[in-house]
Write a structure and sequence with these properties.
The structure holds two protein chains of two kinds. Chain A contains 19 helices and ten strands. Chain A is an alpha/beta fold. Classes of the chains: A alpha/beta, B alpha/beta.
Chain lengths: 497, 398
């Protein structure tokens, strides 16, 4: 028997680990798990177990609620697929990159299970007349939770995040039934499917019945504005539309933004009977600032020739800590600290996160929720590494905690630079000129431009975005290739993977 | 009925955005200020030396060029304006006063800026930041925006007089047009109205798209003519309906609906008169600009207003209009791909039928609908269902 040449063994492992070799296009599954090396596989397995532990703890804390929820809410069973989602999202990762991604996904599952626990234990569908329900303030998912730091006795829950937004990232088949519900009601099929699915969830009576009030908002887009009328009609709670300036880069709109924030605080005070606690708020903002600094460090490192974090982990975690932690959950800070240590270790050692980076890429416009691991595919199959994404590059405002007025002013600024705002509102410069600036900053030669076919903000700009930057805007060194990717964010029905 | 004396002239005026009256005003040295949304106070664009033109792109055929710059999921109205702009159809404009109210129109107007479509060095496009509810804070904000985005640039770039006195004069002129249109609109409440929905639509449209001072004499004459106009003894309509929804600048749509046997007695749509032709009151002691801002914020029926009160007000307003004008049903229409009205027509048609008990139909349509057979069939079916309800009601059948 002829023994294999020892020099060919690494090549053999590279070959059998190859994404395209393992993937079976007929079934849509991988034939077997990749082999990352003993150390990484052990770590990966350990973190996989931790995810299951957190999910088991959720069940253990309220088994009856979970069983009821499984039968009551169609979306809930989707969370069983979270471990598989993390597997997909970490494909091909090794060493530092794997560790950072795993730590961040671990924090997300912990926060998600906490929200699910709070939602079900306070759900009036399961516990009519319970007191906890009245301690909950429901928010539109696009409103960051920071303001709730001033109400330590209340719980802020983004109404649509758990039923629709996060589930649509986990499972591409969960949104269509809700879309069907809204389309059956008469809502056109051409609107953005995210707010449409949220409307469908209300029409199908699939939201937990919780809350003393609901805060709607005009972010990020026209569709989101319109879904609020349906949801308010469904929840039957006192409601407050929180207005965020549209031309948010203009100085003149800022006094209006601050006043809106004050009105929001007053509304919550009036409905809940609680008083806004400036001490807890400012201390949470200190934590938030620290989290933001860690985030800015990631940006800085990714601008160098040694980026440490690529793929969708970057934006998914950013959206989650930004919206859900709000400086109140210090565990996020712990995760950030650990991730930062690993990242800086890699950066200082000038260790590339991958062996060969063919293209440094910017992911622009809103990513496809139904196919979040697209960037992993691009990375594994084409060597296109996402070092910056629009949804990561949201607010970078450090909140001045020296006075109440300053803190509110900066928080108002932060809220204006929220998820999905760049491509939807405030003018074309936010989406176009900023793209060229980002390409330059991150030295990118490639743009994955998500073309959300129902997003009116991007529909209105499509091909003109590919025009060269006009004089006066930041140009990048060498013209980046722009690859347009038609998609329909949480719904994979019209534009498939 | 005998044709209105100026109807043909009005129809001719609507065949082009740059119609003879617009050309005459521009030749007289007036500034043509284009706008597309109710939230841009028309009255402020009629300050001395200026006149407002609510932008339309009549007789648009192909939209291939606009289709290159904007995707297929953008409404035809927005795309047709861009197409016409690229063709040079708005070269007479001195400025476009935009509002960032809906994304699609906002992108259209941005293309005027990006592509420098109007060959005029002083030409500018300005965008208001519009609030989504009516509170003291939003009124203040709106007033600030009107100063910064409308009055200041007009004064700085073109030297327009933006004083309180100038605004008062503009309000007077605006109110005269509104009184005339409202007076004419009152005839639609009659048992057998002396004016058709199509005629009213034409009159109202010219009041939006032509220089006020030049169109006023003809409107006055038409109002006088209508005072003695006799409707046909035999009704030439089968049911009265209200049309509610998004932007309609195509009188062909009204004609299509009325050709099927309906009479449109309420126009609660963008470019309609409800709202649009209410007199602006100037309370004593209140700055004119604030009074104007309050007027537009409180009268607007746009679905982008999110507060519960406004949502309820929209439904109640339609109900009240239906009762006032004796309409038998409501036709909710949505310009295809309009995000706001896509949601609103679904919810409002449900509410108006199930909560208020008024029959309704919800349709989507293209911008130019004159020859749409499908649309005609749907409207016919709705009219027949209203007739059946009427017959059943007369017979006492439930």
């Amino acid at each position: 028997m002829k023994l294999p040449n020892p020099k060919q063994i690494p090549e053999f492992f590279r070959h059998i680990n190859d994404y395209t070799y393992r993937f079976n296009p007929k079934t849509g599954n991988f034939r077997y798990r990749e082999f990352r090396g003993l150390k990484d596989d052990v770590y990966n397995f350990y973190m996989w177990l931790k995810v299951w532990k957190d999910m088991a703890l959720l069940v253990a804390k309220g088994p009856l609620n979970i069983v009821k929820a499984l039968f009551r809410y169609q979306w809930f069973a989707t969370y069983l697929s979270y471990p598989a989602f993390v597997d997909r999202a970490t494909l091909g990762m090794r060493g530092n990159q794997l560790r950072m991604a795993r730590l961040q996904y671990d924090r997300i599952v912990k926060k998600a299970t906490q929200f699910l626990y709070d939602s079900f234990s306070a759900d009036e569908n399961f516990h009519p007349g319970n007191k906890k329900a009245k301690k909950i303030v429901l928010f539109d998912e696009l409103i960051p939770c920071e303001i709730m730091a001033g109400f330590p006795n209340l719980i802020g829950i983004p109404a649509q995040t758990m039923p629709i937004f996060l589930t649509s990232i986990l499972d591409q088949n969960i949104v269509p039934p809700y879309l069907d519900a809204s389309e059956n009601f008469g809502i056109p099929a051409d609107v953005c499917p995210l707010p449409s699915a949220e409307t469908g969830c209300a029409l199908r009576d699939d939201y937990p019945k919780i809350g003393c009030c609901i805060i709607s908002c005009n972010m990020p887009c026209d569709g989101s504005v319109m879904t609020s009328a349906f949801q308010e009609r469904y929840f039957k709670l006192p409601s407050h539309p929180y207005g965020v300036p549209i031309r948010y880069t203009e100085e003149e709109v800022q006094p209006y933004a601050v006043e809106e924030m004050k009105e929001l605080i007053k509304f919550i005070e009036d409905v809940s009977g609680e008083t806004f606690n400036w001490d807890t708020f400012l201390s949470a903002m200190e934590v938030y600032n620290q989290e933001t600094r860690y985030e800015l460090a990631k940006w800085e490192v990714n601008r160098t020739p040694y980026p440490q974090m690529t793929g969708e982990t970057f934006w998914i975690y950013r959206m989650f800590f930004y919206h859900l932690s709000g400086g109140m959950d210090k565990n996020f800070l712990k995760t950030d600290k650990k991730v930062n240590e690993i990242m800086m270790r890699g950066y200082q050692a000038k260790a590339p996160c991958v062996k060969e980076m063919r293209h440094r890429c910017v992911e622009w416009s809103c990513p496809a929720n139904f196919y979040p691991d697209f960037s992993i595919w691009a990375q594994e199959c084409w060597g296109i590494y996402v070092v910056a994404a629009m949804e990561t590059l949201i607010s970078d405002v450090i909140i001045d905690t020296s006075s109440h007025e300053n803190a509110l002013r900066d928080l108002a600024l932060t809220y204006q630079r929220c998820t999905m705002r760049k491509h939807t509102k405030g003018g074309y410069r936010n989406v176009l000129n900023e793209l060229w600036t980002v390409c330059e900053q991150y030295n990118c030669d490639f743009v994955l431009m998500y073309d959300q076919i129902s997003c009116k903000g991007m529909d209105g700009l499509s091909p003109s975005s590919t025009s060269r930057p006009t004089s006066g805007t930041s140009g990048c060194s060498g013209w980046p290739r722009i690859c347009w990717i038609p998609e329909r964010s949480p719904s994979g029905r019209c534009a498939s993977r | 009925m005998k044709d209105l004396k100026h109807l043909y002239t009005f129809e001719q005026l609507l065949e082009s955005a740059n119609n003879p009256l617009v050309r005459q005003a521009v030749e007289d040295g007036q500034l043509a200020l284009g706008y597309t949304c109710y939230h841009m106070p028309e009255v402020l664009l009629n300050l001395p030396g200026c006149f407002s033109v609510r932008l339309r792109a009549p007789l648009t055929g192909s939209m291939d060029i606009a289709g290159y710059y904007m995707a297929n999921f953008i409404c035809d109205y927005a795309k047709s304006l861009l197409e016409r702009g690229i063709e040079g159809g708005y070269n007479f404009l001195s400025a476009i006063m935009g509002t960032e109210t809906c994304s699609e129109m906002n992108r259209t107007l941005e293309h005027f800026e990006i592509m420098k479509l109007v060959p005029n060095e002083k030409f500018f496009v300005s965008f208001l930041d519009m609030p989504f509810k009516v509170t003291e804070n939003t009124v203040r904000h709106y007033v600030d925006q009107l100063k910064v985005k409308v009055l200041n640039p007009l004064h700085e770039v073109y030297g327009v007089d933006v004083s309180e006195d100038a605004m008062r004069k503009a309000v007077e002129l605006h109110n005269e047009v509104c009184r005339l249109i409202t007076e004419i609109g009152q005839y639609r409440k009659e048992e057998n109205p002396r004016i058709t929905g199509y005629e009213f639509h034409i009159l109202n449209l010219v009041s939006y798209t032509c220089p006020k001072a030049l169109i006023l004499p003809m409107l006055r004459e038409t109002a006088e003519e209508l005072k003695t106009r006799k409707p046909d003894a035999k009704k030439n309509w089968r049911v009265k309906i209200a049309v509610v929804g998004s932007e309609i600048d195509d009188p062909g749509f009204t004609k299509l609906v009325e050709d099927t046997g309906a009479l449109i007695v309420v126009d609660r749509f963008c470019f309609g008169s409800k709202p649009g032709r209410e007199v602006i009151e100037l309370p004593e002691g209140m700055p004119v600009l604030e009074a104007i801002a309050r007027h537009y914020l409180t009268t607007s029926q746009c679905p982008r207003y999110m507060s519960k009160e406004k949502v309820h007000e929209r439904h109640q307003t339609v109900y009240d209009l239906v009762k006032d004008y004796h309409a038998q049903g409501v036709l909710y229409e949505q310009l295809k791909f309009c995000e706001f009205w896509g949601y609103e027509r679904a919810l409002a048609s449900y509410v108006i039928t199930h909560d208020y008990g008024i029959p309704s139909v919800a349709i989507d349509r293209q911008n130019a609908t004159g020859s749409s057979g499908q649309l005609r069939t749907r409207v016919q079916a709705f009219i027949e269902s209203l007739e059946i309800k009427q017959i059943q009601a007369e017979k006492g059948v439930r």
